[in-house]
Backbone:
């Protein structure tokens, strides 16, 4: 956990930059397991308000990075300026670069069959020294936990990336880390799909403007309920909380 931690709607967020998050991640790996990082966006916060188990996982995480332009806006409205976004995609790429440099082993769990392998292959093209401990589509269902723990334990990863989508991936990590004790585990949502080239990502200029949600709405219109939750509903909730605290 970083020294600058704030709360948004009851969820702790660490005021870290991407280099700082990577330095903290490296320290967790060197210290040994188990640790959990969550990349918290507005959807996480809104889901945590409805789901006490998910809320408890986020409150217990070792590091919660500010993923989402809405989180930055909310923090500013509530009186704190976060120093930047630390998204799941960028943090995943940073962790795999760090793994290649320090010979850490990375396991890719989740996504549709073949996607984790494609994402790992793309990352190895970029960083040939990257050691892929394993790739497995798996399942977030509790009845599959024991089999997956055996597969992962045999692979001996230093970093475990889990792509089951929130909140399932965070709940899976929290449920299984006491047995696995991987030095660092992180939920990565749709990151494998982006890295594998299966799903397009918004251009950088749109991401800088905080309009990635609009690109997602056009590219994946079926996400409209999630986007309403993440943008207008979240910001209105934060706005009213801020007014009550004045």
Residues:
């Amino acid at each position: 956990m970083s020294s600058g931690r704030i709360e948004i709607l009851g969820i702790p967020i660490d005021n870290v930059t991407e280099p700082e998050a990577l330095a903290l991640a490296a320290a967790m790996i060197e210290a040994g397991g188990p640790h959990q990082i969550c990349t918290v966006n507005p959807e996480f916060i809104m889901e945590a308000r409805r789901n006490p188990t998910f809320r408890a996982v986020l409150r217990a995480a070792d590091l919660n990075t500010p993923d989402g332009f809405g989180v930055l806006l909310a923090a500013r409205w509530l009186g704190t300026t976060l120093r930047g976004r630390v998204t799941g995609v960028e943090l995943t790429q940073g962790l795999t670069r760090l793994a290649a440099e320090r010979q850490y082993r990375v396991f890719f769990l989740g996504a549709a069959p073949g996607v984790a392998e494609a994402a790992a292959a793309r990352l190895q093209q970029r960083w040939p020294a990257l050691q892929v401990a394993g790739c497995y589509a798996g399942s977030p269902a509790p009845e599959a936990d024991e089999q997956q723990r055996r597969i992962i334990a045999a692979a001996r990863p230093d970093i475990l990336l889990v792509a089951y989508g929130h909140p399932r991936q965070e709940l899976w990590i929290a449920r299984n880390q006491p047995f696995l004790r991987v030095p660092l585990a992180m939920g990565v949502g749709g990151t494998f799909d982006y890295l594998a080239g299966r799903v397009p990502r918004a251009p950088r200029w749109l991401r800088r403007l905080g309009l990635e949600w609009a690109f997602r709405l056009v590219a994946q219109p079926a996400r409209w309920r999630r986007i309403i939750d993440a943008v207008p509903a979240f910001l209105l909730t934060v706005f009213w909380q801020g007014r009550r605290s004045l």
